Amino acid sequence: MNQTEWQKAYEPIPQQLEYRVSHTLEQLDGPIRNPRKKLRLSVLTAALILALCGVAFAMIHSQTADIFGWFYGEDMKNELLAGDIAPSGQSVQLGNVVYRLDEVVYSDGFIYGTGTILPADGANIVLIAEDYGVNDRAGYILHYGDEVIPDDAPTYAELAQQRGAKIVLAKCVANGVTNPDGSLNASDIGYTQLPQADGSIRFTFEFTGGEVENGRLNETTIDRAQSYTISLRIGNWEVTPDGTWLREELNNTWLKQEWIVTVTPIEKGE
Amino acid sequence: MKRILAVCITLLLLLGAAAAQAQSLRVLDEAGIADAYLEAYPDRTVDVLTHTTAESGQSNEQELLLDDPDGWDVALIWSNAANLTALDDASLLLDLNQDSDFAERADGFYTAVQNAVTIDGRLVAMPVYMTGAVQQFSLLPQDYIDKYELSDLLTQLDLGGESRPQTFAELCGLAQRYLALPAEARRGTTFNCDVMSGNATAYFMRYMIELYTAQYCDQAGNIVYDTPAFRSAVADVDALAVALSKASKVLYMKDSNMICGLLNDSGSALISSFSPLLYLGISDNTALPAVLLLAVVNPQSEQQEEAFDFVRCAIQVFQAESDVVLIANPDYETLARQNYDETIAIQIQQNEDQSVIDALIAERDAGGYPRFYSRDDIEAYRQNAAPRLTFPCIPQFDAYTISQAYAAGKLDVDSLIDALTEATQNDTL
Q1: Nearest alpha-carbon partner for B114 in B99, B97, B91, B131
Q2: Which of B38, B192, B194, B197 should be substituted to probe chain A, the one whose Cβ sees the most A Cβ atoms within 10 Å?
Q3: C-alpha A103: how far from its chain's center?
Q4: What torsion, rounded to 10 degrees, do the Cα atoms B149, B150, B155, B157 define?
Q5: What is the interface pTM, i.e. ipTM, of the complex?
Q6: Looking at residue B173, what is its pLDDT?
Q7: Which phi and psi angles does A252 have, rounded to 5°?
Q8: Residue A50 confidence (pLDDT)
Q9: Quick one: pLDDT at residue B61?
Q10: Which residue, of A11, A217, B88, B198, is most buried by count of CB atoms within 10 Å of its CB?
Q11: CB of B249 within 8 Å of any CB in chain A?
């Protein structure tokens, strides 16, 4: 990656930082410098520091690596930290629900991703994840974690009643990487939907390559690339307080669509 | 002249043989056995016939075979989707007793299984797989009871040992006794984990309808719902749902989020290594409805040997899983080792860690076979399930939607009966 690409990858340098670096350099003992050269040098230095910090941060922290490390162990976390990490932040709204792709990681032919599902601004809804019932305690990861659940923690049904809100089941599942011809490249697709204490849902996905030919799924590979176009399937529907999904005619609240997102990872080495 | 005639006849015979050899085996393959067959016989070919299935679940397998009697050689069909009597009346079922291996295998079946595939002494179908026709439930297994110290709870519920519900009414009674206990006494448990999704009425109504339909339909699939037994079962569901709604919030185990379901969904299993299945019935009906995957061979087929080979492949694919429920006195060691060999082969194919593969091999060679059904599991099935097996042609319809409508208050018991009667008389194919 060259200097221009580094600068494009991160936000513009704050003006205060530029002045601070410039002032600091002026205070140093040593030969009098040309002010213009000093400013250019300070800008370049700051950019270099920020770029390196950004890369270093991406190398030492990744939401996706954290979550998959929690699933599969420290080896998996380290593997993903060493992979090509693509911070995203792209989002889309479907009905009263916002889906945000937080990050994608490419590692050794696999794509891993994490994101967040949350109520749209002003929407009075209680989100519930797939595989959770209205009588489960809201916001607790019941199927994986070791959370201690207080006896008085409200259920999804109780929370919705307290707020006068509707219960909405929302999910996001990966379809795969989209090839230039529009076909999908994916197999062994795994996903989870994890309730969060703040009422959002964390979604994860992982898959490797695969293509359907003559009705058969053939495993292929996902080659390392400068960018990946990922197809996601998002949807949401209302759930009544007694747990009925409103997805049948005359009272069908089911919204669904394909969401295409392109991400550009930071490649590490060869 | 004679020489020319001989040459022509020889040529014709050779061409005929070549044509026969090149002809694909025409199969109605419900279970994907074609791949195993072609792997065993790579120089042969297969034409797989396809069937359609309506949204209700009703399949057109029987119609396919009847409508095109010359168009197939061997078929894998489900016993609740194709009536053997109808196929036999159309002279479409070859007597498989002419193969000594098939005859010997059939002699070893449980009586109910033998009766299901025999017409006038003829072996008209070869069962290769069997599963339950309705959902089965089991209670919490003893090792969970011990681990989570739930013995007191079971004592309060008059459960434990051989004491367990045998009818749907007894199950509903158990639920009401459980839910009548103080919340703290129920800490760490729930009556049924699936019910925590919220809609207990719909959940148990669907189960009751499917159980009643499978138990009370006749061999041809005719069913009457307006009966005292059905109305009583509906009342049981109503009482159960009221009780569950009053105690829908569970208390988790102290310092954890663990919860144990007292009643667990065992799918359509007929045998379990997890916990004894309840084999519930409606009222005094003790029938245990099951479904067989049957291999049948067309008497008009010109490739009977190839068809028999296809049937042998189907038997082999399912044998380790199915013979424990089909065969009255199965060869336990052979089946257990076969089950382990298949599991090991899959682990190798999936590039599993060698340590895992080595552990499986060690288990297999030690002879305990902890991942296979125990001899006690098979004996429990022999005593409690095998004598009750039935194989009706169960009408296929959408019980879930009707159950949802009842749970939502859109149907009362009379309109529920009307809806079910209409659904089971409606051919949606």
Answers
A1: B97
A2: B197
A3: 4
A4: 170
A5: 0.71
A6: 92
A7: -95, 115
A8: 56
A9: 84
A10: B198
A11: yes
Provide the 3-class DSSP secondary structure of residue B272: coil
| Strands, sheet with A110-119, edge to edge from the N-terminal-most edge strand | A84-94, A97-107, A110-119, A201-208, A187-195
Percent of chain A with pLDDT over 90: 61
**Residues 6 or more apart whose Cβ sits within 8 Å of residue A49:** none
The radius of gyration of chain B's CA atoms, rounded to the nearest angstrom, is: 26
Pairwise CA distance, residues B229 & B285, whole Å: 9
Check CB contact of B205 with chain A, cutoff 8 Å: no
Beta strands in B300-396 (DSSP E): 389-390
Summarised one tens digit per residue, pLDDT across range B182-202 is: 999 999 999 988 877 778 889
| Facing A151 at nearest CB: one of B198, B251, B257 | B251
**CA A140 and chain centroid, separation:** 20
**Location of structure tokens 């070791």:** A146
Name the β-bridge partners of B112.
none
Task: Nearest chain B residue to A154 by CA: give it.
Answer: B249
The confidence score (pLDDT) of residue B383 equals 95
Q: In a 3-state reduction of DSSP, which class is residue A260? A: strand
- Residue A54 exposed, middle or buried by CB count within 10 Å (0-12, 13-18, 19+): middle
**How far is Cα B426 from Cα B221, in angstroms, rounded to an integer?**
12
Cross-chain residue pair A244–B256, CB shorter than 8 Å = no
CA dihedral B254, B255, B257, B261 (to 10 degrees): -30
Both tokens of residue A128? 């519930």
Segment A53-62 mean pLDDT: 63
Higher-confidence position of B16 and B53: B53
Tokens, residue B344 = 């090991």
Are B408 and A244 in contact (CB < 8 Å)? Answer: yes
Per-residue pLDDT of A119-152, as tens digits, reads: 999 999 999 999 899 999 999 998 876 788 899 9
Q: Compute the CA torsion angle B76, B78, B83, B88 (nearest 10 deg).
A: 20
Q: Is the pLDDT of residue A160 over 90?
A: yes
- Reply yes or no on whether the pLDDT at A22 is more than 70: no
Of A149, A157, A158, the CB nearest to B257: A149
**Band of pLDDT at residue B298, cut at 50, 70 and 90:** very high
Going by C-alpha positions, the residue among B330, B308, B341 that lies closest to residue B126 is B308
Q: What is the mean pLDDT of residues A38-59?
A: 58
Q: With contact defined as beta carbons under 8 Å apart, do A264 and A239 qualify?
A: no
pTM confidence score = 0.80
Contact between B210 and B291 (Cβ < 8 Å): no
| A11 pLDDT above the threshold of 90 | no
Residue A61 one-letter amino acid: H
Q: How far apart are CA B417 and CA B402, in angstroms?
A: 10
Angle at which helices A35-60 and A15-27 cross, to 10°: 120
The closest alpha carbon to B204, from B248, B244, B231, belongs to B244
* Residue with the two structure tokens 């025999």: B118
Closest CA to A189 of A164, A165, A209: A209
First to last CA, chain A: 12
User: Both tokens of residue B269?
Assistant: 């299993």
Q: What are the respective helix, strand and coil percentages of chain A, to the nearest 5?
A: 25, 35, 35
pLDDT at A52: 58
Query: With contact defined as beta carbons under 8 Å apart, do B59 and B51 qualify?
Result: yes
Question: From the DSSP assignment, how many helices (H) and strands (E) are in chain B?
Answer: 17, 11
> Under a CB-based contact definition with an 8 Å cutoff, are residues A146 and B256 in contact?
yes
Backbone angles phi, psi at B230, to 5 degrees: -70, -45
* pLDDT score at A38: 54
Question: Residue B218: which residues within 8 A CB-CB, separation 6 or more?
Answer: B392
